[in-house]
Amino acid sequence: MTQQIVTETLTITTTGEAGSATGTASSPLISGFLLDIYNNWHASAPASSVATLTDENGKTIIACPATATDQGYAPRQATKDAAGAATGLYDLFPLNGSITMTVTLSNALTGALVSTLRYLQL
Length: 122
What we know:
The chain has strands at residues 4-12, 21-26, 30-41, 50-54, 60-64, 71-73, 77-80, 86-91, 93-97, 100-106, 113-121. Strands 1, 3, 6, 9 and 11 form a 5-stranded antiparallel beta sheet that branches. Strands 2-10-4-5 form a 4-stranded antiparallel beta sheet, with no helix packed on it. It has 122 residues and is mostly beta strands. A hairpin with a 5-residue loop joins strand 7 (77-80) and strand 8. It has one domain (4-75, 91-121): Jelly Rolls (Sandwich).
């Protein structure tokens, strides 16, 4: 099997009242390791907007801070040794299913956030 870097784009449209609108978008099934995310916010998204990426089990991969500033992230998870003690090292997030980006505390906007994900496909 050949490994390759794949790009997936999630466009989140929010609905609701100004300052409390929400929206979600989910990826197709992914089998691999998350490399990075680039969040591109709508020009009218308020600074209170929060984006959260979760895996298929609802585990938070990254909770982006309240900002509407375009920014890239390379989330990693802490590793543990065989006894369960933290090693101080970090590793890629394994993915085996769909991931979901949720936007909260925003305004009602079409394309409130466009998240571009890159992952190493297995």
